[in-house]
Amino acid sequence: MKDKTKMFKIVILSSGKSRGSNFQAIAEYISNNNLNIQISFLVITNPNAPIIKRAERLGIKYYLLNKKNLQKEHLSFEEKLEILLEQHKVNLIVLAGFMRKLSSDFVYKHKKRIINIHPALLPKYGGKGMYGMRVHKAVFDAKDDYSGVSVHYVNAEYDTGKIIKQEKVCIKGLNSPEEIAEKVLKIEHRLYPEVIAELAENIIHYQDGSW
User: Fold this and answer.
1) In the chain, is it the N or the C terminus that has fewer CB atoms within a 10 Å radius of its CB?
2) Which long-range contacts (C-beta less than 8 Å, at least 24 apart) are formed by 139-142?
3) CA quadruple 74, 80, 84, 85: dihedral, nearest 10
4) Taking the mean position of all CA atoms in its chain, how far away is CA 180?
5) pTM, two decimal places
6) Residue 74 among the catalytic residues
7) Which 8-state DSSP code applies to residue 120?
């Protein structure tokens, strides 16, 4: 049975019309392995995002932080997020389909408490505008034999934070960016939950040795 007094709390941030497949993979991994990890809440920015239906099926609370709602509260996105993080006593911020750039001040305050997943072997095919199918198209056009997945800490620049884990996959013989995306996504769904679990259990150590 889970010890709720020692629960490792995470929040998942998504934006736009996120489908939420990594979100669901994380939630199912936690449940299937009876881990002392709790998805405290999900953040969305679009009321029509498909990820909402996944959250409702899984019984996970979500908050809509869009322009209309934030204006009502006279808060910025990050100001509202800070309030929610404090209320829920969150340990780790997990980006999954989150396209907004967090400010350098926010990232510095939460240094080594924000992680992201990228569908390529960073530092290749990273940076502003490199997400989703754009990444897979770039890999396909380059005729690379391998692609993969990178889980990394978030810093002030796109896709340049310290890499936590990478996994490489052979893509020889694949005939389209869509085929690459399908193969890489399977790794994402396995690797991201594993990294979160390892962080929660202190298997992966931080550079300064502390949380």
Assistant:
1) N
2) 139/171, 139/177, 139/180, 140/174, 140/176, 140/177, 140/180
3) -150
4) 20
5) 0.92
6) no
7) S
The 10 Å Cβ neighbour count of residue 8 is: 18
**What is the residue-level pLDDT of the chain in tens, covering all 211 positions?**
455 557 999 999 999 999 999 999 999 999 999 999 999 999 999 999 999 999 999 999 999 999 999 999 999 999 999 999 999 999 999 999 999 999 999 999 999 999 999 999 999 999 999 999 999 999 999 999 999 999 999 999 999 999 999 999 999 999 999 999 999 999 999 999 999 999 998 755 444 433 3
Q: Which of 179, 2, 9 is nearest to 86 (CA)?
A: 9
- For each of the domains in the chain, give its residue range(s) and CATH number, in order of start: 7-100 (3.40.50.170), 118-189 (3.40.50.170)
